[in-house]
Design goal:
- The protein contains five helices and five strands.
- By secondary structure, the protein is of the alpha+beta class.
- The chain has one domain: ATP-grasp fold, B domain (D-amino Acid Aminotransferase, Chain A, domain 1), CATH 3.30.470.
- α1 packs across α5.
- It is globular and about 50 Å long.
- The relative contact order is 0.20.
- The N terminus and C terminus are likely disordered.
Amino acid sequence: MPRSRVEKTTGVPSLVAGVRLFQRIHRRAPEPSAGIDGVGKEFSDPELVARFARSHGVPSEVASASASEVRTVVVHAFHGTVGLVEIRQDGLSRHLDGSQQDVGDIRAAASYGVDIPVSAAIEDICGWSATLSRHIPRPYVQVLWHEGTDGPVLTRIDVDPDRVPVLTPEWDLRLGQLFDSAHARMLLQPYRVGALDNRIPGGTFLPEETS
């Protein structure tokens, strides 16, 4: 992997900073929407997304919002780990952590809806989202579901989200740490096969540091 294509976050972990850094990297690609890895192009095709989901045992129906939609669930996933879940309904948002516990009003720009019901399928939604994100070579993705009268339906997997939530400093740090850990885990496989050319001899990149 060329040195110019491996860039890491430094300083205090931050979700917003990490996402913006990766966007700058992928915008250098000949086809910016696809990114340097081509992943953006693959996940812009609903048929390919459905096939990808089905190959990992996730319900494969991919649909756009419809009149029967009750609420939208956005899972913020970090290469196999769910960090935050947003439930949106009627212009309001409710936030849950990775264990599906309410975390309160952590986002100043969104009107908080403490009375928005949590889906009976939320555990499945989080599990499916974690599975999908684990098999995508990006440290952070947003997995979107619409929940209507017939249950949750996968809408899309956003591998290059423009809309990144601006959270309280505590939560930006918390998700930033998940982002950095996911980035390190993502690089383990190419590192192990010697595909990274900017390894510093005697450096501190160890598998146990990414847990």
